[in-house]
Amino acid sequence: MKKKCALAIAGSDSSGGAGIQADLKTMHGCGVYGMSAITAVTAQNTTGVKSIMKVSKEVLSDQLDMVFTDIFPDAVKIGMTFQSDLIEAISDRLKLYNAKNIVLDPVMVATSGARLMEEDGITALCKKLIPLADLITPNIPEAEVLLGAGEIKSREDMERAAVKIAEIYGCNCLVKGGHMVSDERSCDVLATTGGKLYWYESERVDNPNTHGTGCTLSSAIASYLAIGCDICGSIKNAKQYLDKSIREGLDLGTGHGPLWHVFV
């Protein structure tokens, strides 16, 4: 039996709701074989992050070498990268192996508010990693950081931000509107490198358990790209998958609880 394969490059979440754990659950749920390269180990749960220990640049490079030289991934999802030296290792290996279907979720802050990227990492991310991506999936606060100026408060602002990021970095950009809580619908906008705009809307689910939604969406997009869907189709399918995983109503922990990724 052959299966399409996807690689997740991200941090480990000890509570299993986000990071590598959510990535692999999502890939399994979407029907692809998931692999991993861990950038950092976090001690966290639904209430917050207690500590972070990054892996060495050498160990991360070795993980990537072992994956790419044996089971070559049909898509790559990148999440928490943390520091500039790890970003350099990822960038070097993606270029060395001519990786394809790269989806980058620019993880900067956890749902709990904990900072997951250092300042030098943001600079390296913008210069070395985002230009390699086929798609970047920032939420509103992350899009504001990437642009470096102005707040995003409306749909028009989201469109302008997505277009500008796509122009600056030369990659498709999906700005996620989940932080716009005044909107009754969950609305994300895609700006393509060809200058087109596409809106993805769904009913906002009344569920406070949203730990790992960004990881889940980006991993689902990568999974559908691995299967052979185009960017627009992958986002549409991934949004439907995320919606179902939220609607399952899993209720664990005392903070922002995780999703249920393996519904049938």
Furnish the topology, listing elements before pairings.
Layout: E1 5-13, H1 19-29, E2 33-45, E3 48-54, H2 57-68, E4 75-78, H3 84-96, E5 102-104, H4 119-129, E6 135-136, H5 140-147, H6 155-169, E7 172-176, E8 185-191, E9 197-203, H7 213-227, H8 231-247
Parallel strand pairs: 1-2, 1-4, 4-5, 5-6, 6-7
Antiparallel strand pairs: 2-3, 7-8, 8-9
Summarize the structure in short.
With about 260 residues, the protein is of the alpha/beta class. It has helices spanning about 20-30, 55-70, 85-95, 120-130, 140-145, 155-170, 215-225, 230-245, and strands at about 5-15, 35-45, 50-55, 75-80, 100-105, 135, 170-175, 185-190, 195-205.
Tell me what you see in this structure.
- 51% of the residues are buried.
- Strands 3-2-1-4-5-6-7-8-9 form a nine-stranded mixed beta sheet.
- It has helices at 19-29, 57-68, 84-96, 119-129, 140-147, 155-169, 213-227, 231-247; strands at residues 5-13, 33-45, 48-54, 75-78, 102-104, 135-136, 172-176, 185-191, 197-203.
- It is an alpha/beta fold and 264 residues long.
- It is globular.
- The protein is built from eight helices and nine strands.
- Helix content is 39%, strand content 22%.
- Helix 5 crosses helix 6 and helix 7 (213-227) crosses helix 8 (231-247).
- The model has no long low-confidence stretch (mean pLDDT 92).
